[in-house]
Specification:
By secondary structure, the protein is an alpha/beta fold. It has one domain: TIM Barrel. It is 45% helix and 15% strand. The protein has 19 helices and 13 strands. The strands form 3 sheets. It has an 8-stranded parallel beta barrel, surrounded by 7 helices. The longest helix has 24 residues. The two termini are 28 Å apart. Bound molecules: 2-acetamido-2-deoxy-beta-D-glucopyranose (4 copies). The site of one 2-acetamido-2-deoxy-beta-D-glucopyranose has 2 residues, from loops. GO terms for molecular function: beta-glucosidase activity. This is Beta-glucosidase 11-like. Keywords: Glycoprotein, Hydrolase, Signal.
């Protein structure tokens, strides 16, 4: 009997035997919280999130070519850590779908590797890439798990970066739409939730202004790293502009050619902090609005109102491209849902005195200084600030006509090889889903929650130093054995109470 029990059950059993029932009850109460999946509206989906480069591995198998992320990792930006093997989901996807089933997920969010599906960036489809995604999607669907698919998650085919500079060229729009077309036509019979671009705002800032993300473009004195090429003053705005045009063209194509038969939804994803004025000065309050306009408004104002926020046009001047009337009409309303990644709260301090200098970059154009709620940078784990999630959702409800939202990412960062007893993750998730329920009851239009992440992946900023997973992946084991953390048991319990309720 012991053999078939999970680690957690054994842990509880030992606790019970040695310390008595009272402890068991306290422990159970702790990990369950006062909210369960049952309390959410019917149709609400709970899932976990991932991306291709961070989980798949097999980067040179079966015809895949490098993406800008492979190039970035292999250039040593991450102390030698790469996604070459990652969690080897390419070979282990069946085992991982089994973990999703055991956890009780309704949905799984993942991205397609463009350079695995279309190795030359455009043109012929790679039959082995096609087969992998068909198999993976079939495995999910046959186990009752909805696939929520992202088309671009920081991993543009390197070949397009080399040919014309990727997102800084308008040529990207045509190639992106053709790639999206292949995905809709091949997978759209089973995939009902499409996200065009992950964290469009962070990708532009990280990739083209500060240079800490692929494709690592930036210019002095603005980048955080030494970039070999780029222009921090102009390229973030140009890349972001092309992302909006590419998103809208793909969404319009879906609407025109696929939506009637496939009945799916399409959206785009951004990252947000909840911004709070550092002091109650009017300057900090205005600076907080500026932060929201530059982080959220950059993408959502065009999508909802058809143009960039006024403050962006004012501060960036001719460095931010303008939409034609036709483009504006195409972008406005080109979504069914908006995807939001939320982790943390930031306090905003006004720095508008810095606006005098010329040739500013996006970060300088915002003219703010951010202060983390966590004062001690040696603390690895995120502070637990669910009120920030409520704050962002309330902001969106009030400023953007309460659009349909999926929380695409939310989760706790811990040291990867610390204990499986990840109580801070349980507390983090429990607090956020509890608050999410409160916001839904107060009118926010949220239909899904995905925790980042299912497994401990190759992480964007930390490589293999941190993990966000419900499951630990043992990198020293040649089979990359997955082991459930306390958070996997908590999530499973939370979700199974949902299942029970709907019977
Ligand atoms: C759960 O408990 C928290 C903290 O006590 C409370 O703020 C929240 O409203 C509760 N949620 C529900 C749905 O009872
Ligand atoms: C960036 O582009 C702007 C506008 O073309 C130009 O004025 C500026 O000198 C460029 N900066 C760099 C570092 O190339
Ligand atoms: C609930 O929504 C209303 C209307 O948007 C808002 O004024 C109020 O602050 C919200 N309550 C909470 C607790 O966020
Ligand atoms: C955990 O990971 C860190 C960073 O990679 C490393 O320094 C440390 O030695 C590891 N600890 C164990 C017990 O493996």
């Amino acid at each position: 009997m012991i053999k078939n029990m999970s680690n957690f059950s054994v842990f509880v059993l030992i606790m019970t035997m040695s310390l008595g029932l009272r402890i068991l009850l306290v422990c159970g109460e702790n990990i369950n919280g006062n909210v369960s999946g049952y309390d959410f509206p019917s149709g609400f989906v709970f899932g976990a999130a991932s991306s291709a480069y961070q989980m798949e591995g097999a980067v040179d198998k079966d015809g895949r070519t490098p993406s800008i992320w492979d190039t970035f990792a292999h250039s040593g930006y991450m102390n030698g850590a790469t996604g070459d093997i990652a969690c080897d989901v390419y070979h282990k996807y069946k085992e991982d779908v089994q973990l999703m089933v055991e956890t009780g997920l309704d949905a799984f969010r993942f991205s397609i590797s463009w350079s695995r599906l279309i190795p030359n960036g455009r043109g012929p489809v790679n039959p082995m890439g096609l087969r992998f995604y068909n198999n993976f999607i079939d495995e999910l669907v046959s186990h009752g798990i909805q696939p929520h698919v992202t088309l671009h998650h920081v991993d543009l085919p390197q070949v397009l970066e080399d040919e014309y500079g990727g997102w800084i060229s308008r040529k990207i729009v045509k190639d992106f739409v053709e790639y999206a077309d292949v995905c809709f036509s091949e997978f759209g019979d089973r995939v009902k939730h499409w996200t065009t671009i992950n964290e469009a705002n962070v990708f532009t800032l990280g990739g083209y202004d500060l240079g800490f993300q692929p494709p690592a473009r930036c210019s002095r004195p603005f980048g955080l790293t030494e970039c070999s090429t780029g222009n921090s003053s102009t390229e973030p705005y140009i890349a972001g502009h092309h992302m909006l045009l590419a998103h809208a063209s793909a969404a319009r194509l879906y609407e025109k050619n696929y939506k009637d038969k496939q009945h799916g939804l399409i959206g785009i994803n951004i990252f947000s902090y909840y911004f709070v004025p550092l002091t109650d000065s009017i300057e900090d309050e205005i600076a907080t609005q500026r932060a929201n306009d530059f982080y959220i408004g950059w993408f959502w104002n065009p999508l909802i109102f058809g143009d960039y926020p006024d403050i962006m046009k004012k501060n960036a001047g001719s460095r931010i491209p303008a939409f034609t009337v036709e483009e504006s009409d195409s972008i406005r309303g080109s979504f069914d849902f908006l995807g939001l990644n939320y982790y943390n709260v930031m306090y905003v301090e006004d720095k508008s005195s810095t606006l005098q200098s010329e040739n500013r970059d996006v970060v300088a154009d915002i003219a703010i200084k951010l202060h983390s709620v966590q004062n001690d940078p040696s603390i690895f784990e995120y502070p637990i600030t669910p009120w920030g999630l409520a704050g962002v959702l309330e902001y969106i409800k009030q400023h953007y006509n309460n659009p349909l939202i999926y929380i695409h990412e939310n989760g706790q960062r811990t040291r990867r090889n610390s204990t499986l007893e990840d109580r801070s993750r349980v507390e983090y998730l429990q607090a956020h889903v509890g608050t999410l329920l409160d916001t839904i009851r107060n009118g926010s239009n949220v239909k899904g929650y995905f925790t980042w992440s299912l497994l401990d992946y190759f992480e964007m900023l930390d490589g293999y130093e941190s993990g966000y997973g419900l499951y630990y992946v043992d990198l020293d084991d040649p089979n990359l054995k997955r082991q459930p953390k306390l958070s996997a048991h908590w999530y499973s319990d939370f979700l199974k109470r949902k299942e029970k309720a709907s019977l």
